[in-house]
Amino acid sequence: MAERHQRILDGDTAQWKPWLTQHTERAALYVNGGELPRTPEPQREHETGVYDGQEEPGKALARCRCGWSGPASTNTVTAGRQGKAHEDSPEA
Fold first, then answer.
1. CA–CA separation, 15 vs 79, rounded Å?
2. For 40-87, what is each residue's pLDDT tens digit?
3. Which of these, 15, 25, 58, 63, is most buried using a 10 Å CB contact count?
4. How far apart are CA 91 and CA 1, in angstroms?
5. What are phi and psi of 73, to 5 degrees?
6. CA angle centred on 28, ends 18 and 42, rounded to 5°
7. CA distance readout (Å), 72 to 27, 41, 61, 91, 92
């Protein structure tokens, strides 16, 4: 512990020690279950999400950042697949 305090006083940062919480209930309290946080990825032009359909209650709708919107689906899995197909489409 004294070594850690000396590093802080010297201005050094301590490396994250995932072993402190791994395989414990506390690991779930940290981002990525105790792993180091990932660097944010840049936004993509075509990034879809699944939302509740406004026009048809009980239906799911895939929408893209570019403005594309898929047909209303009966479940989120189908809407998610439509969105993924749009992202992977060369015409997108």
1. 41
2. 778 788 889 998 888 888 889 999 989 899 988 888 999 999 999 999
3. 63
4. 58
5. -115, 160
6. 80
7. 38, 29, 5, 21, 19
